[in-house]
Design brief:
With about 120 residues, the chain is mainly beta. The protein has one domain (about 5-115): Sandwich (Immunoglobulin-like). Helix content is about 5%, strand content about 45%.
Length: about 120
């Protein structure tokens, strides 16, 4: 955690921390637990993205190898809601995942070439 990785397009991606729980006023689905990851994306020189387009590139990888995508619902201030990320600019915020059974992930992944992973302590 905390390591910044440069993508092939020159963008910088950092995962700062993972934690169990999230500040949500909606309960997770049956058997589910919210888990959140503090992430930052800095757009490369030719990249003009939105946080909503970048969010699905992150995932949690569980011990059995399965991957969990970020929750589709987002509250104000969460990474998915932060808007445009213009070249040379950064956005940082929490990404929330809903994990069945509350299994602690082994990695946080970012779908780039190659796949980048941060080990969850």
């Amino acid at each position: 955690m905390g390591r910044t990785v440069q993508t092939s397009s020159g963008s910088l991606v950092t995962v700062f921390r993972w934690r169990s729980g999230a500040n949500r006023n909606v309960a997770p689905g049956p058997g589910g637990v919210y888990e959140s990851v503090d992430v930052q994306f800095c757009a490369g020189p030719q990249i003009d993205e939105s946080s909503a387009d970048v969010a699905p590139l992150f995932s949690l990888e569980l011990a059995d190898g399965s991957r969990v995508s970020p929750d589709e619902l987002s509250a104000t201030g969460e990474f998915r809601t932060l808007g445009a990320i213009h070249p040379g600019h950064c956005k940082r915020g929490p990404l929330v995942f809903q994990v069945e059974g509350g299994a602690k992930p082994v990695y946080v992944g970012f779908d780039s070439q190659p796949m980048t992973k941060w080990r969850v302590p």
